[in-house]
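Data availability (excerpt). The following record was deposited with the supplementary files.
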Amino acid sequence: MAHKNQDGRHLETLDRDLARFSTLELAATYVARPMVGPGIALVFILLAGIAAMVFFGQTSNSMIVVIAACLGAYMALNIGANDVANNMGPAVGANALSMGGAIAIAVVFESAGALIAGGDVVSTIAKGIIAPESMGTASTFIWAMMAALLSAALWVNLATWVGAPVSTTHSVVGGVMGAGIAAAGFAAVNWPTMAGIAASWVISPMLGGLIAAMFLWLIKSRIVYRDDKIAAARTWVPVLVGIMGGAFSAYLALKGLKKIIKIDMPTALLIGAIVGVVIWVLMIPVIRKQSQGLENRNKSLKVLFGIPLVVSAALLSFAHGANDVANAVAPLAAIVQASQSENFTDAVSIPFWVMIIGAFGISFGLFLFGPKLIRMVGGQITKLNPMRAYCVALSAALTVIIASWLGLPVSSTHIAVGGVFGVGFFREWDAERRLRQQRLAVPERAAFAPEERRRRKLVRRSHFLTILAAWVITVPAAAMLSGLIFVLINLAVSA
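Predicted structure:
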């Protein structure tokens, strides 16, 4: 009983700082009511338009920029509603974070990632998918970007409404491609770039799943399956937190500080290694203190992984903000540049107010419409506990960081959900392996019937197939919708 009371006190300590967000959770519940959330979203979209009017009210193309800013804000809201669930779903599903705490952390770190480190992927989306010079005129390029932005936003809005975690990156890339084909034919598309992007879409969920499975294997082999689990956790949990801190530090050195000082890759890795070692050393007494009085069982390990899971979720939100803000602001930035200077072939520069729309739009979208998909990703694919969720979050963060550094518009949805599937399928494999070992040790033990084996699957196959189908259909659906919108815009302009 004393041990249970001690366990309870540790959990209370972990949750105390998050308790202050209970009012935020109530507010999120309130805005989920019909018409309240959409009403607040509409106000934000109008404010984005007013901001564009303030900056471009004296130019001849001011109305185009205002409309584009409204569409960019609408897209950012949808990114927050759909994509951010992949960052916070594992932590909420593992009960390490309340919904209010998850929303608060995501709002802060998504905005920080977008404003501090966002932008590298913008040029790939705005100019790398279609050849701008094939558009002929600046107005044609502007209408193509407008169609891409609207089609992507509509598709993600529909997916969120039906509860499907589709890729906003897929949607905007498909939208740009479809508008480019409608405007200038198939030759306008940079097919080698598209092939590289498509390959990254296949590789990223597999890589996310593999990294998550490797970390879960490490935790199980070095901690869970040890005779003295608590002693093993005192050794390995600080190491895992150090890895996470080192990765974040290297990424921040590469991207977040580049406006102040240029840091090359070897130096960034050295900074990450040093910070990782420092965090590892600092976490040793923290974990030792947390583990005092815990029983030697798996349930006790959840307490030790609570704080690392929260930190890893925050890291993933930062990386997501840096990577996926491009989905909202790249077409908008391209439209602003083409409207200002009639120059639509040079590299895209991103005005600060455009980044603000992207960053705050993602945060508003999460707050207003995110809880539905957070619950789906966190609890309806496979059962997550803090250890499994930590593996998913750390895997997704590392993969998104690498992709963002390389300038590849990979899908954070694919990576995070791939991590969830990787954890689930590893658990299935590990359970089968241990069962085989038991049967070898006890030959008379009967094997499970096929029906029982299917019942014991730890990944819900219906969700697996549904999500794969949604991933496959997103690019062609967004492309066709974008092409149709571009044709309609041209007809309206020429009428």
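Summary of structural features: The chain is about 80% helix and 0% strand.
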